[in-house]
């Protein structure tokens, strides 16, 4: 069977109970629409998002169970043990996880199933909620730029997946129209051999299905518009700006600042002369992991040290671990190292227009 026949067969194949994720991407793709940008971030939001964890040790110390019950309230709000999110996290310390392995995994899922979903194959919410992804340890290491395989590396990979046990994400429910639902983010199913990891992710699968299907272009009669190959035409829905090297973890929370800066730039528009901008204070507010520690820190000198460390790393990440300079003509970064007295300073990212990309411009 030639390559074209194999590709056509894959595009028309329904979702199996188990699928091998074998398409590791060179650029990480994440949802780019305004209502889904927070969907791969741990924060409190009225939009799809991942619910922060609670520091388990403190729960146990208080004689409380180290798990929470997530429900949707009568007004559609997320409740944790019966309390609204914001109220709940005023009472408990949040425990943030590294989101980049999860974003990389989402991108791999997207690469595997995007064309099949566009073809209208039988990838139903029920099938999506139950299927198991078969992931190669070697491919996972490539996706996070791990240098070499070892038993210790494999153990760390499994631990990073297991850390998501009990973590839930919030999305419009695929089973109850007009309602939100909470779904497990990542479930470790085991490792049958040294090379293979089995995982389930109802949340990421639903997110992929929702992001793509909401972007389908439709006629006035609400029929899905298709190209000559039968694939649904789509409005832009995914941002491809991040290199896999951003997943290696050495820059810590500064990577979340980079994630938010890229959203500011993407959402501002692609026309020449556009000047995306955001204040330092607002950028901090978009990264709750940093914000929480920053405002709990009393000494101004210590706050300034936190800002210096985060922002010096931020400008380095934007240049080395994103392709912003390739995608946006003559984009300029402020390279400012703010202090406490400069929190209201506005950071600007002027450019001369966005270069089209085949991955994004698929309609």
What do these coordinates show?
With 363 residues, this protein is an alpha+beta fold. It folds into three domains: 3-35 and 98-213, no CATH class; 53-95, no CATH class; 250-348, no CATH class. It has 13 helices and 16 strands. Strand 6 and strand 7 form a beta hairpin. Helix 4 (100-118) packs across helix 8 and helix 9 (254-267) packs across helix 12 (300-320). The protein starts with a helix and ends in a 15-residue tail after the last strand.
What would the keywords be for this entry?
about 375 residues; alpha+beta; 3 domains; disordered N terminus
Number of separate structural domains: 3
Fraction of residues in H or I helices? 25-40%
Distance between the amino and carboxyl termini: 28 Å
What is the H-and-E element order? HEEEEHEEEHEHHEHHEEEEHEHEHHHHE
Work out the radius of gyration. 21 Å
Sheet with the most strands: spatial strand order: 1-9-13-12
The description of the largest β-sheet is: 4 strands, mixed
Oligomer: single chain
What is the molecular shape? Answer: globular
Q: How much is the average pLDDT?
A: 82
Low-confidence stretches: 1-13
In short:
The protein is α+β, with helices and mostly antiparallel strands and 363 residues long. It contains 13 helices and 16 strands. The strands form 6 sheets. The chain has a 4-stranded mixed sheet with strand order 1-9-13-12. Strands 3-10-11 form a 3-stranded antiparallel sheet, covered by helices on one side.
Summarize the topology:
Blueprint: H1 3-11, E1 18-21, E2 28-31, E3 49-50, E4 53-54, H2 56-61, E5 70-72, E6 78-80, E7 83-84, H3 85-91, E8 94-95, H4 100-118, H5 125-130, E9 132-136, H6 137-143, H7 151-162, E10 168-172, E11 180-184, E12 187-193, E13 196-200, H8 202-213, E14 238-242, H9 254-267, E15 277-279, H10 280-285, H11 288-296, H12 300-320, H13 324-327, E16 346-348
Helix pairs in contact: 4-8, 9-12
